[in-house]
Every structure is written in structure tokens, then in C-alpha cells.
Design a protein that fits this description.
alpha+beta, 5 strands, five-stranded mixed barrel
């Protein structure tokens, strides 16, 4: 029961953090990071490498190397094992 409560509290904290995070708009090139899990990242035009967090139901139909614009929120409430850059919770992704 305590584990279920802890999971619910984490979900509430993530939701609050997501709502309070300012929107970020980033342009750049989609790439696969050269780490074990090969996460999809955005090599932004300003030199920042963003690790992209997609909603669970999303299927990304854009090829690696594509120029894209991503609208999202900086995700400060989660961590990943890849540590390739700041995390961006994607709202929209469009090709340039």
C-alpha cells in the first residue's frame, strides 16, 4: 500500500512540475545519441543536445537527420541513465 501511495505522490509531483515549466521552442537536427540505449536527441542550433521525452502513445515518423522544431517543457522532475543533455518533454514536433 505504501508503494502505491508513493507512486501516486510521484505522479502528482511530475504533473505539477510539467504544468509549471515554461514552454521551450528548439530548432535543430534529430540524432541518435552514441550511448547504449541510443535515445533520440535533438542537436539544437545553439549547440545544446536535448534528450527528448515523448508521450507514451507517440510514434515518431521523422527520420534521424531531419531538421525539426520541437515545442515542449524542460523536464526537471525526471532523470535518465543516458545523461546526454537536458530533458525536453515534447508537446509538438514538426519538420522545418
Amino acid at each position: 500500500m505504501a508503494e502505491l501511495r508513493e507512486q501516486a505522490e510521484r505522479a502528482i509531483r511530475r504533473e505539477r512540475a510539467a504544468r509549471s515549466a515554461p514552454e521551450v521552442v528548439v530548432r535543430g537536427t534529430l540524432q541518435r545519441a552514441a550511448v547504449e540505449t541510443r535515445p533520440l536527441v535533438l542537436a539544437a542550433d545553439d549547440g545544446t543536445t536535448w534528450e527528448l521525452l515523448f508521450p507514451p502513445s507517440w510514434q515518431v515518423e521523422v527520420q534521424e537527420g531531419a531538421r525539426v522544431t520541437v515545442h515542449g517543457d524542460r523536464a526537471t522532475d525526471v532523470r535518465t541513465t543516458t545523461m546526454v543533455g537536458p530533458l525536453l518533454r515534447v508537446r509538438t514536433l514538426s519538420t522545418d
